[in-house]
Amino acid sequence: MIRIADGWKEYSVIATGDGYKLERWGEITLLRPDPQVIWQGKDLFSMDYDAVYRRSDKGGGAWEYRRPIPAEWTVGYRDLTFKIKPMGFKHTGLFPEQAYHWEKTGALVRDAVRKGRRPKILNLFAYTGGATVALAKAGAEVTHVDAAKGMVERAGENARLSGIQTGIRYIVDDCKKFVLRELRRGNRYDGIVMDPPSYGRGPGGEMWKIETELFPFVKLCAGLLSDDPIFFLINSYTTGLQPAVLENILRLTVGQGNIEAYEVGLPTGEGISLPCGAGGIYIHG
After folding, report:
1. Mean pLDDT of the 263-277 span
2. Where are the alpha helices (DSSP H) in the chain?
3. What domain range is 277 assigned to?
4. How many helices (H) and strands (E) does the chain have?
């Protein structure tokens, strides 16, 4: 079953078709490739948009602008504010479908806060901090870890834009190395969020390939959970990795609690749902 992030007011998918999606980010409209859009639709290139990301036959691609737009701007989601910027490889610095997870994990944190706890949450492969900001706003103490210094700096900007000045620890490091150090230190967390890449390298050249690294890494991270954990969330954009795979990994590593696995997606102007990856979450209790 697909879980839809339908709470946005300053973002929307206007239309989809022929490998592209037309999106509204505040007052700016962007046309971006999407590998899931294998159906035919409207001629999006004949519609009004501000910029398009065109792929190159030689790999990569570049943005083309129909009219001048700001180098960066902001969009809001409920009481959160995020910086948006057209970047390389078609990215904008935010994955709006993750609002579903912000809502779900944020509710779990707020419930724990009402019971007198200040949950400690670890966000791994944390990118520009969508989950970090949402969880900190909900009342958690968040450790944000990513190997890319520029993305960690942007996460700090997003936190400040959302009115968060304290409660977040920013770490620029290889996630596996950090987890190993935390295990040695005896540090524990009430919740873990991870958004591992399909393939990547750490700052010291460390190799990551999700097919071989994800299971042992989740097993390693399970050792960081406190005696009374709240949740363990895995998100994945790897093509072909089914939600049931995430469910199986969580059951074999974290425990036999309440585990859900699903697709995440966005509503579109055609009245359909655009799939945007898979999620799996363990909820204790």
Report:
1. 98
2. 99-114, 130-138, 149-161, 175-185, 210-222, 243-253
3. 96-283
4. 6, 17
30 & 85 share domain = yes
Q: Which band of pLDDT confidence, cut at 50, 70 and 90, is reported for residue 1?
A: confident
DSSP reduced 3-state for 107: helix
β-strands 258-267, 2-4 pairing:
parallel
Residue the block writes with tokens 């779990």: 108
**9 CB burial (10 A radius; 0-12, 13-18, 19+):** exposed
- φ, ψ of residue 176 to 5 degrees: the values are -65, -45
Taking CA atoms, 116 is separated from 113, 139, 176, 188, 189, in Å, by: 5, 11, 31, 18, 16
Please give the structure tokens belonging to residue 193. Answer: 């969020």
Q: What is the pLDDT of residues 15-44, one digit of tens each?
A: 999 999 999 999 999 999 999 999 999 999
Question: What 3 state SS string does 220-246 have?
Answer: HHHCCECCCCCEEEEEECCCCCCHHHH
The total number of structural domains in the chain stands at: 2
Do 108 and 80 touch, CB atoms closer than 8 A?
A: no
- For residue 89, give the DSSP letter: G
pTM for the model: 0.96
Q: Select from 44, 63, 90 the last residue of a domain.
A: 90
Which amino acid is present at 22?
A: L
